[in-house]
Amino acid sequence: MKRLMRAAGAALVLLAGSALPALAQSTVRVGSTPTGIPFTFLDTKTNTIQGVMVDVITAIGKEAGFAVQVEPLQFSTLIAALTAKKIDVISAAMFITPPRQEVIAFSAPVYTYGEGLIVQKSDTKAYTAFADLKGETVGAQVGTAFVEPLKKSGQFTDVKVYDTSSDLMRDVNSGRVKAAFADSPILAYNIKLGNFPNLRLVESYKPVVIGSVGIGVRKDDTALLAKIDAGLAKLKESGELARILEKWGLQPSANPS
Question: Which of 20, 79, 203, 238 registers the highest number of CB atoms within 10 A of its CB?
Fold first, then answer.
């Protein structure tokens, strides 16, 4: 009987010990945007945010031992929400740029690309640079790294700024603006889905702003950043990151080392 009691006690200790990691697991609030497919978007079937960057941070969480709670936010509000501690992490199509690095810290690069140019299908000109659209009104999304270069170029009559990439694509589609610049994978994915049948992505265009998407945290969250970087490195080594990119139609070859 004593041996049975000791065995039962040992089993309870083992069970309690195995439960500790789950109980101790922290939840990280992740800011992502409801627009920006394939990086982040609202899946209307599940009413949840899905996409590349949601899959990436979720996979990193599994490696690092934290759960992920995704919070839908507009792109332009992400950094303010992070610094105000309304969220703990930004995982969206956000470029690592020097101005942003003055405010928040970033992980190692997740994916690298440049801006794309869209015009109506009826416009067959082989645009290659800003200068080819001199004097025109163009669009870009607020808060993106593309707005300032467009304005500073002095090539355009006006640079209209939109809340979402869908809004700017809609205005090009309807002819309200001549052209628009945005994240090339987002533009390509939307056109592939047939959401904007009157648009084409200009293949001849050479991007000016080439950057890498990273995961953002507050500057003083060094321990969290270290966990994210370690988890991201494991995803790259195992091939999991490449599988996530491929799932959403992005070429693994564009993934930085």
Answer: 79
